Amino acid sequence: MVSPPAITGNLKTFMEWVDEIRTIDVLANADTPGDAREARKNGANGIGLCRSEHMFFQPERISKVRQLILGDEAQQEDALEELLTYQRADYEGIFTEMDGLAVTIRLLDPPLHEFLPSLEDDDVLTALAEQLGSTVDQLKEQVKASEEVNPMLGLRGCRLGITKPAIIEMQTRAIIEASLNAMSSGVDVKADIMVPLVGKVEEFRNQAALIRSVAAKVFEERGKTCDFRIGTMIEIPRAALIAHEIAKEAEFFSFGSNDLTQMTFGYSRDDVGTFLPSYLSQGILLDDPFVTIDTEGVGQLIKMTVENGRKVNPSLKIGVCGEHGGDPRSVKFFSNEAGLTYVSCSPFRVPIARLAAAQAAVEKS
Prior knowledge:
This protein is of the alpha/beta class. The chain has a single domain, classed as Phosphoenolpyruvate-binding domains (TIM Barrel). About 55% of the residues lie in helices and about 10% in strands. It is built from 16 helices and 8 strands. It has an 8-stranded parallel barrel, surrounded by 5 helices. Helix 4 (about 75-95) runs parallel beside helix 8 (about 165-185) and helix 15 crosses helix 16. The longest helix has 25 residues, at about 75-95.
């Protein structure tokens, strides 16, 4: 396996000059301690997006996630306990790698059906039926009942947290316990907890109250406390329109630019390939809006959110965590026009984003 080249020698010196010039932080999207290590090597100022659900897809964990979704109450409690152990270890590893830098953990976002086995996968269904003391036919009925017509607009994000609070309680406990464990080892932990898919301030308020309640319980159990912040993703157009209300409650915003683009255009990311080449070739679109930010539509929502959010909370930290954060032209918009605090992108794109941010600063000056 070929490793990416290290940033050393003259390149390291050049990137240090770049960092002196840029006016926007560059963070990374990282889901594991290994990702975090790579991000730090590439000069990331922190983790702007840690997708907690990505940890669930590992083979030894997915069966417990399925048990959580399909099992009875006792089986669900058992699954939550085991997942808590996994998540706590993951977060502690990430905090340790990012010692002194911010780590933003997004709570569970995708619809639960993504974790369920295919109805055609008889071997997996048979093993799961044995695990749950059920039958394959019963499991198939449960899986079918979990299917949604439009899952990306269905039971996911904070809707999942509101209807199934035990999952968020487990994740919050894992984050807080991992923070305390890492701190006791001398790690400087800066944890941010991010609530996904908020469209109403009441949704954020509900989840923030749950997070604080769990944290208070852990603090009482451990006899010690830690600082953390609670913020939200801005990925639904309605959230952008009521940013002034959400900013009264949230300590930071992070634009989920992929979903915000999808919902603003009404384009499905999964199906855009059926018409995007024609749109580009005929000049209907000049750029792929999922690669380079649409400054006329999505960009205006972003600017409005920043302006209205900071009117009520001048110190509001605002970033973007979609892959637009690693696109040079998008970085220029985020830095020079939108006034974001940071961009966050894949670890391997961090050097590109650092350079783009410096170029944007030079152009603005």
